[in-house]
Design brief:
The two termini are 23 Å apart. A 5-stranded parallel beta sheet has the order 2-3-1-4-5, with helices on both faces. The chain is globular and about 45 Å long. It has 214 residues and is α/β, with parallel strands linked by helices. The chain contains 8 helices and 5 strands; from the N terminus they run E-H-E-H-H-E-H-H-E-H-H-E-H. Helix 2 (42-53) runs antiparallel to helix 3 (62-86) and helix 3 (62-86) packs antiparallel against helix 4 (97-107).
Length: 214
Amino acid sequence: MMQGQYIVFDGMDGSGKGTQIEFLQKKFIGTVVFTREPGGTPFAEEIRKIVRDNPLAGKSTPLNNFLLFWAAREELLHNLIVPTRKSGKHVFSDRGDSSTFAYQIYGEANNGLITPFFEMRKLVFEKAGRQPPHLYIVFDLPAEVAHSRVMAAGGSKRNHFDTRKLDYYERVRCGFRNFSAHIQNVVLVNAEGSPEAVHESVLNVLAERGILPK
């Protein structure tokens, strides 16, 4: 049996990646496993509550957040992604290590974490039976557009990452683009169009890579 592939959907908050994942969930019911970072397993969801949803996390250090995101990723890989891929199913993840690079390094302006990032990447992804994501689809749009979309979404949907100032969003966008310069298999999709137009681009990418039929 051929193993399934591991695909990450990523981008700034406000990029519309969640909408694109919802489209795919309706289109490929039962044939693809969808998950998210941080989270995806009971233990990783507990880490999510600490690092993303707890307002106290906004006062933590970039290094602490960096380590917690990698801890959640290790858990998700071990207990969900690897077993699912071995069963022959593809895994689509809402966020991945691309977000750690963009947010904890570029967003926090902490270049000192670049070397540890690639060391952690080797440690977590190069274990027996594992592989890094086969494809990253990053939804790209101007920082000011993403920021305005998040601000318009309402306070109940925001976390401590969402409420940062525009310059933070600009650094995060730069982080995603620089991630694509370091890592192969990253495709930037223009996310400024209508959800339907963006979805057509996503389906084209997946079809071109032989992951899913259009």
